[in-house]
Amino acid sequence: MIHPALSNCPVCNHTLTIKKLHCNNCHTTIENDFALSKFSMLSGDELAFIETFLISRGNIKEVEKELGISYPTVRGKLNTIIAHLGHDTSKQEHTTDEGSIISMLEKGDMTADEAVKQLKSKRGRH
Fold first, then answer.
1. H-type alpha helices, 1-126
2. Cα–Cα dist 26/116, whole Å
3. Residue 114 has pLDDT above 80, yes or no
4. Cα(51)–Cα(60) distance, integer angstroms
């Protein structure tokens, strides 16, 4: 049985590196310092969410239905994952203008209630 690679040390919680790669077929072994992928740093739940998001082709409405969660929860999960991957989410939050909200509403990516909440919260910030 092959176990998923750990990304953090269970003793001190620092990032682990991979030292050895091995082929089970020809038994070639390569030793060096190998970095883990950014995605290996995500939790199992976050990876499952990304898989659902991709299968839904980024359609937030489909993700909502599949996972039984609201639009703000989907956005929150996306922002958390984006942050865990090392990207700034603050500028992305502010780029959703009224036109984008209406566009998402028209495409069915957001319910009317969610659009109203988003629009009200935008007006409350200004």
1. 44-55, 60-67, 71-84, 90-94, 98-107, 112-125
2. 60
3. no
4. 13
Gap between the Cα atoms of 71 and 95, Å rounded: 17
Q: How many CB atoms neighbour CB 63 within 10 A? A: 23
Q: What is the pLDDT of residues 67-79, one digit of tens each?
A: 998 888 888 889 8
- In angstroms, the CA 78 to CA 84 distance is 10
- Model pTM score: 0.58
Looking at residue 11, the DSSP 8-state letter turns out to be T
Interatomic CA distance for residues 79 and 101, integer angstroms = 17
Write the pLDDT tens digit of every residue in 28-64. 999 999 887 888 888 889 999 999 999 999 998 899 9
